[in-house]
Amino acid sequence: MTAIAAAGADALTAGADVTTALGMDDFPREQPLAYPEWFKEPFLNLPDDHAEAVAAGKDLVVYFGQRRCAYCHKLMDVNFGAPDIVNYTREHFDIVPVDIWGVAEVTDLQGNALTERDFALREETNFTPSLVFYDEEGQEALRLRGYYPPYQFRAALEYVADDHYQRESFRDYLARGDNRMVFGPADLNDQDFFEPPPHNLDRSGLPSDRPLAVFFEQGDCHACDVLHGQALEQGALQRRFGELDSVQLDIWSDTPVVTPAGERTTARDWAQDLGIFYTPSVVFFDEQGREILRVDSVVGFYRLRNVLNYISSKAYLDEPNYQRWRVSEAF
Description:
alpha/beta; 4-stranded mixed β-sheet; 13 strands; disordered N terminus
């Protein structure tokens, strides 16, 4: 892994305060967000923005956010508060902001005109901030859904800027820069609502009577510790997860699993097939074993409560698009 990500890893292992990035009150902010002055003016003509970025030797990033989103504020305050991240981002990328509630017209890279809100709904940017990276051909190189701490964010920038996306998955790229790849199951956080192995999650032949939540975690995972020690300490969330079929898997383990689709595999291989690169990630499946939604970035009580309201109420049966449901519920 190259210099900027290595510097981030060194900072973490040296005892940097990563809780600043992970532990947070994620309720909407009272003060609206202001974009950094180096973001591009949001004229929202993406073909022009893309051509301008390519002419400058850069890639284009479309940022989907909300003005009062706590995670968007965290991205600006923590990640874009780090001079090395700002300098690297400005050198390699042009960022165009999109307000997911906005009504301004956007012209997408294919030349279609639609509102910011409809663009965000179409792109299924369920969790803000979402950043979509486009290469010089206008093809999607990487998508980040939600907020990621500086180490993963630095790595994402390098992954695209150095064209690693053409050769390997982001999961594999992160793993190459992480010496903590294999952990024992004893290192995982436990919860009373986790169902014990064996993990036969097959719903392909006989549907279950309730949704499934799969926690993908790993040992020695500070973000996992924060989730379990903060948001999941709340009784309301524990009860909601207790009403679901909830299991926990180590993404690096060879624990046998039968997936919701009825396939025999291991926790490691299933996580890889699903493209899981961040821990903890929670993937929700419906009664027939189809994926409903995944939370694969930093998450606190407010966001997780909203997700569980959607899952527990089975709103996905009538509205499969979580973000469109949020719009209808005016969250």
